[in-house]
Design goal:
The chain is α/β, with parallel strands linked by helices and about 250 residues long. The protein has eight helices and seven strands, in the order E-H-E-H-E-H-E-H-E-H-E-H-H-H-E. The protein has a seven-stranded parallel beta sheet with strand order 3-2-1-4-5-6-7, with helices on both faces. The longest helix has 28 residues.
């Protein structure tokens, strides 16, 4: 899974799965364009990558709900590194834990804006770039909640089902354009998002008990799956949502 001489874009790279993915790309030899919220977190990530002294790195702060900021990420990345070979649309937020009737319209709009429309904005600007440069690979971060129903996180679940559908349709549109589009569907991962979502209402030990493998995963485990989907090893894989969930969606 070498990405030597290639460039990877990771949107939503300042924490959790996105940060782990950016570092994994760098370790695999790729220059990294990282984007997300948090200038200091972004600079810390770039410093860590540059300390490897083998690849380049660029951070562009951006809010995925603002299309012009995503457009700037692509423009700045292309200006510095030229062609982008792989793109990961990972930005996402959680919803408050509880029944859907207790959620507000404002919560719904915010979650859909980040988790679904943010992926759309990424695709909207990544695809023309890849078409101009002869192809590429895109991975969108969905969730176990994009493959099953999960009680008490209904809006989040709806947004991730949307990501899965968007991934499938986009993959079909691009199947003969040398651009592959896939998704990952993480189960419980030890990230700030999981901790904020349950916020003490459900003990993490209880969540781990529900996983057939009996544990919560580390972000690096999802990052490796993302790299595989972006690699030449997955050259015949498109439109697929890869569950990285310890068996949660098997029953």
């Amino acid at each position: 899974m070498s990405f030597q001489g290639r460039t990877a874009l990771v949107i939503g790279a300042t924490s959790g799965i996105g940060r782990a993915t950016a570092i994994a790309f760098a370790k695999a030899g790729a220059n990294v364009i990282a984007s997300g919220l948090g200038a200091q977190e972004g600079q810390d990530l770039v410093d860590e990558i540059l300390a490897m002294k083998t690849v380049g790195a660029l951070f562009v702060e951006a809010d995925v709900t603002r299309e012009q900021e995503i457009e700037k990420v692509l423009a700045d990345g292309e200006s510095q590194f030229g062609r982008i070979h792989a793109a990961v649309n990972n930005a996402g937020i959680e919803c408050a834990y509880g029944p859907v009737y207790e959620r507000t319209a404002e919560e719904f709009d915010r979650i859909i804006a980040v988790n679904l429309r943010g992926v759309f904005f990424g695709l909207r600007h990544e695809i023309p770039h890849m078409l101009r440069h002869g192809g590429g690979a895109i991975v969108n971060t969905a969730s176990q909640a994009g493959l099953t129903g999960l009680a008490n996180v209904a809006i989040y679940t709806a947004s991730k089902h949307g990501v899965v559908g968007l991934t499938k349709s986009t993959a079909l549109e691009l199947a003969r354009s040398n651009i592959r589009v896939n998704a990952v569907a993480p189960g419980p991962i030890d990230t700030g998002l999981l901790h904020r979502m349950v916020d003490g209402m459900v003990p993490l030990d209880a969540i781990a008990e529900q996983v057939p493998m009996g544990r919560i995963a580390h972000p690096d485990e999802v990052a490796e799956a993302i790299l595989w989907l972006c690699s030449d090893a997955a050259s015949y894989v498109t439109g697929h949502t890869l569950a990285v969930d310890g068996g949660m969606t098997v029953p």
